[in-house]
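User: For documentation purposes, I need each entry recorded in a consistent format: the amino acid sequence on its own, followed directly by the corresponding structure tokens. There are two entries in this batch. Please keep commentary to a minimum and don't merge the entries.

Assistant: Recorded as requested. Entry 1:
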Amino acid sequence: MILDSLHHSASIESLHPRFKQAFDYLKSNDLSRQEPGKIVLDGDNLYISVAELTGKSPKEAKIETHSRYIDIQMPLTAPEIIGWKAGAKLEKPATPYNESDDIAFFDDEATNFVRIEPGEFAIFFPEDGHAPGIGEGIFKKVIVKVKI
């Protein structure tokens, strides 16, 4: 997992060949005004989901993992808390891996929580179990899906 500010993304862009395109798009577009939906940047290799969600409690937020994609998650209109637990330590599968949606859910409790402010982002790799959407009220966020 990586946590940083959008202003400092240049130091991370070399970690994956599609990161620069993703961060350039995030920096040059005001997605807080974008209607919820999907923005395709490079087919299924790189796309953005703009989502509007109602915040959950830490107990309600399920840990998820992905096998084919890296997530870059960034709240747009309010802070978001995301739980984290190392994927290798996840022991309580709740929903088996769904290949078409590239997601599995777990009933484990997060071992750490990070608060992400608008303008900041978190990157979750396949080895990162993460429980997004913890917060209050309705807020908007983006999830950038970067194919491995």
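Entry 2:
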Amino acid sequence: METYIESILPSIIAVLELMGIFVVVVSALRAFIHYLTGLVTGAERDVKFALANGLAISLEFKMAAEILKTVLIHELNELVVLGAVILLRALLSFLIHFEMKQTGHGGA
């Protein structure tokens, strides 16, 4: 069972990483289109919130991948590096959510 998990887990992790990348790209493009539309029409668009929301969602996918990576850890130094990455991503997520609350959109 352990061998099966170790063989399939890298694929699952890669899919989660790709999902996070996809969310960032789509969110950035969408925010940019909203920005351009706002410039042309003069309508006020909340581009910052839209982008921050996409980045927060992306970080959740990336964090899920990092958590699954803990199953594959075999040495202490790998765990330290992975722990640092998880801590940095959690801090980024917290900062993005804090920024979203400051702009008045609440969130979770």
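Summary note for entry 2:
The chain has three helices and no strands.
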